[in-house]
Write a structure and sequence with these properties.
alpha+beta; Rossmann fold; Elongation Factor Tu (Ef-tu), domain 3; Alpha-Beta Plaits; 5 domains; eight-stranded antiparallel beta sheet; 15 helices; 38 strands
């Protein structure tokens, strides 16, 4: 198929805005599904995991392919719950465009802001679909104002709602000046177009002027035609809109009610008309490895080039093993061929290639540039790995995931299940980069960490129900971090006789604190001619291991800079082991002298409550160490944004429900680590 007719898109939004319901309608109208699956009764084809059906939420981003008006659309339906934000992050990384679904009642919610920021980070063009116009309290025009205010986004409504709430019956096509209604008998497949009546004349005129004004800012030709009173061709308007959508200057806006089968087909037209094809996106950035040097390069979309692809998701299948979801940027990957995992420096074989329709695979022979598909047969792959040819080794920019902030202890009920539990944890951590686990070397206790209580709950349920591991789980604990308050320089010598051979090395390190969110930086001030690269790597390993082990409290160290000032050795007594041990000793000694401090995770809390309870909610948050950042009134209640320590928020969901008669709701996401008071 012509690459210009391919669309790689994601559906993104806050939880319960209707992403999965919208995707189900898209699959029905494009002929991919023969009946419509509903989220509410657990039959949505995109929510194929048992837990997704039981909980009524999307947990894992599902991929599917469908066809509309000669265009191939690869769709990824992403989760809306903040605990699964990594699923959104890795999906947006490989998408060319996105549909932002916004609830017509609730407007811009906490996770809407998060996914919008993520889309900005990866420069993903998007169109907007204001959903749930049939719900009580729906207001299309206030949602448009809120989007423009919060995101400084120029929304360009191409369709307007006819009525709202229970009176919502169809949409107005602003460009064609038509009224569109959707047949109830065939689930909205048939659209009826008729001329607009005089009652809509004023409304249409206002928004048509706004549409022309928006595109005229980017086209002198349209401006001239408008002022001369001549008719402006629709194709000309569409071309400018598409161009500025891809430039992320304009956001074409659609309206409907997916559950009532209204407005989804007009959205499909918008997807193929305005969102970019693989040919329209700028070249990918990568790093070429030549002569042991890293050189920044760009990777253009080229079906005839050397094969290059990114693994953006891994999902385990009991029979097939790991399913590697890949986005191909260059060349062709064929079934049965050998390919290099450039990240791991290991050769892999492409046993099978499939195109996924949710959890139903369709075998295909190859994937070419611009395609999204699944490769089966890789043994060493992990999320974020680059695969390609040995002749052109380019590492694509990896996905950076947020740190896990909540931990629980886990143990198998029987000793015989211990190995099975560890294997299951390995599998889950390969699938989900925000899930980590480690074994305490002193106690033998296994500790798992994730993004939130729901995230941990879902993973534990998968362990017990999917992977059939009987396990006991402790109470959730906060995952702290360590840092330092002062700068110090320390020199240490490691000297021991091992296996009858003397091992000796001397290392001097300076460690200094960095601003919040800086991570860990390692710099060497020792000239490369004075220190062979294998010894520098050994020193780096020693430092990294010490960073993971902590200084005083056993938590990972963050926000520091480690500078290697001196590395002294004799060729008779030196070894990599000596340097690794010397740097670990040096780091530990320096850390204890640098005033070690404990950092706790601070969460951004987003609460929606009826107005009469807002005072009580704010007082409750303050008593938990929270700081109120802002408050605004909305049609569905007051919206409070605050920051609070995670340790004080365990059980807050129950407390909020009881103090608001069950009418308050909240979401929280990690904000930053701060010094514990």
């Amino acid at each position: 198929m012509n690459d210009s007719l391919t669309r790689n898109i994601g559906i993104m939004a806050h939880i319960d805005a209707g992403k999965t319901t919208t995707t189900e309608r898209i699959l029905y109208y494009t002929g991919e599904n023969y009946r419509i699956g509903e989220v509410d009764n657990g039959e949505a084809s995109m929510d194929f995991m048992e837990q997704e059906q039981n909980r009524g939420i999307t947990i894992s981003s599902a991929a599917t392919t469908c066809y509309w008006k000669d265009h191939k659309i690869n769709i990824i339906d992403t989760p809306g719950h903040v605990d699964f934000t990594a699923e959104v992050e890795r999906s947006l990384r490989v998408l060319d465009g996105a549909v932002a679904v916004v609830c017509g009642v609730s407007g811009v919610e906490a996770q809407t802001e998060t996914v919008w920021r993520q889309a900005d980070k990866y420069k993903v063009p998007r169109i907007i679909f204001v959903n749930k116009m049939d719900r009580l309290g729906a207001d299309f025009y206030s949602v448009i104002k809120e989007l423009e205010k919060k995101f400084s986004a120029t929304c360009v409504p191409l369709f307007l709602p006819i009525g709202s709430e229970s009176d919502f019956s169809g949409v107005i096509d602003v460009l064609n000046k038509e009224k569109i209604t959707f047949e109830i008998d065939d689930f909205g497949s048939s659209m009826n177009r008729e001329p607009l009546g005089s009652e809509f004349e004023e409304l249409h005129s206002k928004w048509y002027e706004y549409l022309i004004d928006s595109v005229a800012s980017y086209s002198d030709e349209i401006t001239e035609l408008y002022f001369s009173g001549e008719e402006i061709p629709h194709e000309m308007i569409w071309d400018v809109l598409r161009e500025q959508t891809i430039a992320r200057e304009l956001y074409p806006t659609f309206v409907g009610a997916s559950l009532k089968n209204i407005g989804v087909q007009t959205l499909l037209d918008g997807i193929v008309r305005f969102l970019p094809s693989p040919l329209d996106i700028p070249p990918m950035k990568g790093v070429s490895i030549k002569h042991n040097k890293e050189v920044e390069v760009t990777v253009k979309h080229d079906p005839k080039g050397q094969p290059l692809a990114l693994i953006f998701k891994i999902q385990y299948d009991r029979e097939a093993g790991p399913l590697c979801f890949v986005r191909v940027y260059s060349g062709v990957i064929k079934k049965g061929s050998a390919i290099l995992n450039i990240t791991k420096k290991k050769r892999e074989r492409v046993n099978r290639i499939v195109r996924m329709h949710a959890n139903k695979p369709e075998p295909i022979d190859s994937l070419s540039a611009g395609d999204i598909g699944v490769i089966i047969g890789f043994k060493h792959a992990q999320t974020g790995d680059t695969i390609g040819s040995e002749g052109a080794q380019i590492l694509l920019e990896n996905v950076v995931f947020p740190e896990p902030v909540i931990s629980v202890a886990i143990e198998s009920k029987t000793l015989s299940d211990q190995a099975k539990l560890k294997n299951a944890l390995k599998t889950l951590s390969i699938e989900d980069p925000t899930f980590t686990w480690k074994e305490n070397s002193d106690t033998g206790q296994l500790v798992i960490s994730g993004m939130g209580e729901l995230h941990i709950d879902v993973l534990v349920t998968r362990l017990t129900s999917e992977m059939k591991v009987d396990a006991r789980v402790g109470k959730p604990q906060v995952t702290y971090r360590e840092s330092i308050a002062e700068e110090v320089t320390v020199e240490e010598t490691y000297s021991k006789i091992l296996g009858g051979k003397e091992q000796e090395a001397t290392v001097a390190l300076t460690i200094r604190p960095l601003p919040t969110g800086s991570g860990v930086k390692f710099i060497s001030n020792v000239p490369s001619r004075d220190l062979p690269s294998e010894y520098l790597d050994a020193i780096r390993r020693g430092v990294n291991n010490s960073v993971q082990s902590g200084i005083r409290y056993g938590y990972e160290v963050v926000d520091i800079e480690v500078v290697l000032e001196k590395a002294q050795f004799s060729l008779l007594t030196v070894s990599e082991l000596a340097f690794e041990a010397a740097s670990a000793l040096c780091f530990e000694s320096a850390g204890m002298k640098a005033d070690p401090i404990l950092l706790e995770p601070i969460m951004k809390v987003d609460i929606t409550v009826p107005t009469q309870f807002v005072g009580e909610v704010m007082a409750s948050l303050t008593s938990r160490g929270g700081l109120i950042n802002s408050m605004e009134s909305r049609s569905n209640g007051d919206h409070v944004i605050a920051k609070a320590p995670l340790a004080q928020l365990f059980g807050y969901s129950t407390a909020l429900r009881s103090s608001t008669q069950g009418r308050g709701s909240f979401t929280m996401e990690f904000s930053h680590f701060a010094r514990q008071n």
